[in-house]
């Protein structure tokens, strides 16, 4: 497991702001090729292939939240820029969002990088976040960044914190990327997809386009990610998070039964996130979304020619540099993956 955390520590240091993932993909490509893995790069998706590419299809988005320079000493949330959301007209809780951003990001250290090469362009600190009423959007101020030009990505700076029971960093979704690299170290010979712009709602298009490009169909696409919860007590009740469905589609894959069987056999604690959310809605007498996932969009758009399921690590502090997961959860997800793809005949 020390190798896994070494991989994770290094990947965390490489910036990959949503919409500006190229330099991270180049770093990842080198690391995978060093493991004798074949790597192909398409628009919005880096594809890794072992010696038996059809033995598994696992996906993880590679982008992370960050900021983008939009003018002289002016910065906006990169996910909004990447999905061409120029204002917050369709966001009902703008003021609450601003408060959340202030709580998460003010006084946060950040680094600027050249989007193509990944070259370091300087370090700064977020001084303020405010709602510009004229433009109806949230603007960030960062010291020491007067020299930057529009289009420069700004990544949050953090490093992996390892405690007795937990790890913390901006885990979404570098944790899943590290898991996939580690799986190749362990001998995984299937295919892995590293997608771009998931935080802007675009990654599913890149992955679906890849499947269509090569006329590939499968009912065993496994999508890895983190899944947010409110308290440490919540995630201590869980090791892994599964789903029957999301807002867009039902997940109908043999992988669901296989993962459940592995979990039961190895005393891995799990629940289905959609059922959990329905229970909360019933208890609070409210109606809300069951969540939108990359996989659900792919299933819906492909009309079921691509099917699969999700496997997620429960976390708290979602979308911050202090997102926290239990080490037990990481051990559990690695065990499930090894049983599925390295020891399947023994499941």
UniProtKB/TrEMBL annotation:
What name does this protein carry?
A: Peptidase M42
The organism named in the record is Poseidonibacter parvus
